[in-house]
Design brief:
The protein is globular and about 70 Å long. Strands 6-3-10-1-2-7 form a 6-stranded antiparallel beta sheet, covered by helices on one side. A 5-stranded parallel beta sheet has the order 13-12-11-14-15, with helices on both faces. By secondary structure, it is of the alpha/beta class. The structure holds flavin-adenine dinucleotide (FAD) and NADP nicotinamide-adenine-dinucleotide phosphate. The site of NADP nicotinamide-adenine-dinucleotide phosphate has 22 residues, from β12, α18 and α20. NADP nicotinamide-adenine-dinucleotide phosphate (NAP) binds next to β12, α18 and α20.
Length: about 550
């Protein structure tokens, strides 16, 4: 529909607006699409509302060097990412090797971690938690291309991490503060297949401050039963001195007992002989002689080479340091004061007869007690925050633990009396068991803070029904919100959900915004660049 009142497009994107000619042309085309092709018939005022208040230069924007980094898409297997990055500068190929886009757990974003390795200001090649051993191996190979043998960092393997005086206490993984564990409350009802906890810490004595959208980093400790089993398998005394500490203590809080690192197999290749030596050598180079490599955590590796007794000090040296884990903050300091809360899914799975435990999630789910103090830090969000203008509507998509930051956002918008509308898509397995924060969201709906709550239960019916299916059902309404300038947020599983949600959004833009698929892809890419599509995925 055309309106005679509509001003020429040039007046919507003025010459002096802070865009390049190319951007202005693109935006003019973009508005032309909105004004001419869209059945929702936006007024010029609606269209103009798409411009102000957006966080231009948000961290989603890149410097052009990375071209949106398709070769760094975590949903692609590592060999495919490396193929896509082929021919690029070494730093970019190092970035492609990293397991997930800017998860922040290594203390850098991927670009900076790659740069730091390349410029040799960071010698630890094993910091990428999502990428694990595959990433460490690839980084080692790429590092070799700059002509030096890498030293795999061991800084925190024996003692607590060295404080980095450059950052205030509690603001980085290098300089954690102490927080007091307060409580955990199960969010699923009995009968659920999931184990998810609402976890609270008190930050009063830590001096730490946080904002909604930030993540909370914490240093877990290993399961004491696993440490005992390992001491037994090693046939080593618990009080064996390692760098002034007892072996048991170092195994508890100094080293990762998850996937056995290549260095451990290398150690076994030195201290064993014959067929076992060959196997250890093969495992150290990423081969899989017995088809069990993927199942070998440190204990399983020690058991595989049972009877061999490596020197405890050399054994510890061969392991990776125990790294902190990040969790999205699910509280708002404006409502919850010095308390910070997290929404944590406990990782437990069986391999053969032994149950394997996710170190940090099960630490929070069971191994700490109220009053315990643990080392924590706040990882400031560069890319995930509420719009500066409180009147801007927001659409939040967060199945499972992905709901965490949105609980925080909603409390924040409630506390600040933000006039903008709020729409939440939440989903999980079964409504009767896995509806996290149901009462709170009902209260927020009644109070008018939560404008729309859309739910998707994946296992209540024979067919899977996910948040993106619910989005499609209300696609026209979503498009209207987008056209009104809404910011879109996605949080939760990075491997599948986030990608599927983005595809669905593209479909919605194409269908209701009357665009071709290519135009819809460009539209969503532009939303990202302008900080209007933000993700916190893991
Ligand atoms: C920015 C950010 C925010 C996050 N927010 C949250 C949050 O709000 N809530 C939350 O719960 N988590 C969140 N995470 C994830 C969290 O940091 C941890 O990765 C997660 O809790 C698992 O860590 P863990 O130490 O318990 O497990 P780990 O000891 O790291 O073990 C996990 C590993 O175990 C293996 N594994 C897991 N399940 C299986 C299986 N079934 N079969 C075989 N192998 C398996 C996989 O290799 C997996 O990588 C976030 C991550 C990031 C980066
Ligand atoms: N490695 C894996 O295979 C795997 C799988 C799931 C989660 N995770 C990780 O486990 C952690 C916690 O998960 P969580 O407790 O937050 O919940 P979750 O396991 O991510 O599940 C939350 C909801 O999302 C659904 N879901 C599954 N695939 C989806 C998709 N492609 N699109 C949209 N929704 C989808 C789930 O349905 P169904 O469960 O019925 O499919 C469930 O209803 C996260 O770190 C996540 O990344 C890993």
């Amino acid at each position: 529909m055309n309106s005679p009142m509509r001003p020429p497009l040039a007046s919507i994107v003025p010459e002096n607006a802070p865009f390049t000619t190319e951007q202005r042309l693109w935006l003019n085309g973009f508005f032309a699409g909105l004004l001419e092709g869209d059945a929702t018939a936006l007024s010029p005022q609606d269209a103009a509302a798409l411009l102000p208040g957006v966080q231009i230069g948000g961290a989603e924007a890149d410097d052009g060097a990375n071209d949106g980094a398709p070769w760094h898409d975590q949903t692609l297997p590592l060999p495919d990412r490396m193929k896509l990055a082929d021919g690029r500068p070494l730093q970019r190929r190092m970035m492609a090797a990293m397991g997930q886009q800017d998860c922040g757990q290594c203390g850098y974003n991927c670009n900076d971690y790659a740069d730091a390795i390349f410029h040799k200001s960071e010698e630890r090649l094993n910091l990428c938690i999502p990428g694990g051993k595959d990433t460490a191996r690839m980084l080692k190979a790429l590092y070799a291309e700059i002509g030096a043998a890498p030293a795999v960092g061991k800084a925190s393997a024996v003692a607590a991490p060295v404080a980095s005086p450059a950052t205030p206490v509690g603001t980085s993984r290098g300089n954690p503060a102490l927080a007091t564990f307060v409580s955990r409350t199960r969010l699923n009802k009995p009968g659920s297949h999931k184990e998810t906890w609402h976890v609270e810490f008190d930050l009063a004595e830590s001096g730490i401050e946080y904002a909604v959208g930030d993540s909370f980093g914490l240093y877990p400790t290993n399961d004491p039963a696993l440490v005992d089993a390992l001491l037994k398998a090693l046939d080593a005394p618990a009080d064996f001195p390692i760098g002034g500490r007892a072996l048991r203590d170092v195994l508890t809080d100094g080293v990762s007992l998850a996937p056995a690192p290549d260095m451990l197999f290398q150690l076994y290749s030195y201290v064993t002989g014959g067929e076992r030596r060959k196997k250890a050598k093969a495992l150290a180079t990423g081969e899989d002689p017995d088809g069990d490599a993927a199942t070998l955590d440190v204990l399983a590796a020690v058991e595989k080479f049972s009877g061999v007794r490596p020197d405890p000090e050399a054994f510890i040296e061969s392991l990776d340091p125990l790294q902190p884990r990040l969790f999205s903050i699910s509280s708002s300091p404006k409502v919850h004061g010095s308390r910070v809360s997290l929404t944590v899914d406990a990782v437990r799975y069986d391999v053969g007869k032994r149950q394997r435990l996710g170190v940090a999630s099960t630490f929070l789910a069971g191994r700490i007690a109220p009053g315990d103090k643990i080392r924590v830090y706040v990882q400031k969000s560069q890319t995930f925050s509420l719009p500066i203008d409180p009147a801007i509507p927001i659409i939040m998509i967060g199945p499972g633990t992905g709901v965490a930051p949105f609980r925080a956002f909603l409390y924040e918008r409630m506390a600040t009396k933000a006039p903008g509308k709020n729409c939440l898509f939440f989903g999980h397995q079964r409504r009767d068991y896995d509806f996290f924060y149901e009462d709170e969201f009902a209260g927020m709906k009644a109070a008018g803070v939560l404008t729309q709550l859309y739910l998707a239960w994946s296992r209540d019916d024979a067919q899977k029904f996910y948040v993106q299916d619910r989005m499609l059902q209300v696609g026209r309404e979503l498009w209207t919100w987008i056209a009104e300038g809404a910011h879109i947020y996605v949080c939760g599983d990075a491997q599948r959900m986030a990608k599927d949600v983005e595809r669905t959004l593209i479909d919605i833009v194409a269908q209701h915004g009357a665009r071709s698929t290519n135009e819809a892809v460009a539209f969503v890419a532009e939303l990202k660049k302008r900080g209007r599509y933000q993700t916190d995925v893991y």
